[in-house]
Amino acid sequence: MNDKILINPKTNQEYRDVPPTVAAEYLGVALNYVYEGLKKQTLPIGSAVQSDKGRWTYNIPIDRLKTYASGADISLLTTLLNKLLGSGNAISERTVQK
């Protein structure tokens, strides 16, 4: 992966929330793949929300994008951690991703 793609040209710093166009380029996939994957919740790199007027907004945290691109499976890691901690100390995927 080319991490230089994840640098915001306006700030010269890494994106916190990656635009879908940049995410598609980073993953080497079509932009529509990212849009549809987020809308259908089949691409675990972020979320898509539709407004009352029908407009979609996308949120792709950089850490989730990098984790997905590296091949790590967040849900598997969460399951394993919960087994190690026991049911009384269960954690959520959101906690693992921070």
Structure classification? alpha+beta
Major sheet: order of its strands?
1-2
Assembly type of the shown chains? single chain
Proportion of residues in β-strands: 5-15%
Counting H and I runs of at least 4 residues, what is the number of helices?
Answer: 5
Specify Rg, calculated over alpha carbons.
15 Å
Global outline: globular
* Poorly predicted tracts of residues: none
Mind describing the biggest β-sheet?
A: 2 strands, antiparallel
Residue share in helix: 40-55%
Give the CA-CA distance, first to last residue. Answer: 21 Å
The overall pLDDT average reads 85
How many β-strands, per DSSP?
4
The topology string of helices and strands comes to EEHHEEHHH
Secondary-structure map:
Blueprint: E1 7-8, E2 13-14, H1 20-27, H2 31-39, E3 47-50, E4 56-59, H3 62-70, H4 74-85, H5 93-97
Antiparallel strand pairs: 1-2, 3-4
Helix pairs in contact: 1-2
Q: Could you describe the 3D structure shown?
A:
This protein is of the alpha+beta class. It is built from 5 helices and 4 strands, in the order ββααββααα. A two-stranded antiparallel sheet has the order 1-2. α1 packs across α2 (31-39). It is globular, with a radius of gyration of 15 Å. The two termini are 21 Å apart. 13% of the residues are buried.
Outline of this structure?
The chain has five helices and four strands; from the N terminus they run ββααββααα. With 98 residues, the chain is α+β, with helices and mostly antiparallel strands.
